[in-house]
Amino acid sequence: MFSKILIAEDHESSNFSVQKVLEDLKIPSVDHVYYCDDAFSRLKKSLQSTPFEVLITDLSFEEDHRKQLIKNGRELIKCCKDLYPELKVIVFSGEHRIGVIDLLFKELEIDAYVKKARSDSKELRKAIECVFAGETYISHDLQLPVKTMNTLEFSNYDIVLLKLLSEGILQKNIPKILAERDIHPNSLSSVEKRMNAMKLALTVKNNEQLIARCKDLGII
Length: 220
Fold this sequence. Notes:
The protein is an alpha/beta fold. It has 2 domains: 4-146, Rossmann fold, CATH 3.40.50; 156-217, Arc Repressor Mutant, subunit A, CATH 1.10.10. 50% of the residues lie in helices and 12% in strands. Strand 5, helix 5 (120-132) and strand 6 (137-138) form a beta-alpha-beta unit. Helix 1 packs across helix 5 and helix 2 (36-46) runs parallel beside helix 3 (73-83). It is elongated. The chain starts with a strand and ends with a helix.
């Protein structure tokens, strides 16, 4: 089992909950902080002797009188990974939008995601055990939606189309804007084909429902 873990969590109740799980797992060295800057500082300092093996962090941190350079968990993960790529990362958060969670695995290469809920202590324990075994983990109630989500890869091109729609641009006018930005393909048929593919994948009937669904998922 891991021997040195760092917790970054600004809510005391959640912080204590995580500490209890680590205590039950008999993790010998656990450090906990309430600010992202402190977490990054502790990790940096640990590299001089015995590095932390795992970072358990929330995504959102409330602002207060203390000014922070690193403002949220996503920024913290990136900073820590850039400094120490071997670090394992477990996100422990109330965020439930599948698109946001999916991007954490794809872009930041986190190792586990545990959603704060009634059974989160058990889920967190499972996550730590899976990560120690070299596996990735995601909360049970999020597994099926993420798997379904992965049936359609949202490319940068797709995101551009969705953002233009969300800004109130009519679908028939999107090709002209794509052409002006030198984005290809920019024909109306190509735009319609991609829009239809996204609507089919997300089981929605029109562009309005598509935009609402993508916002719910955190894709845009």
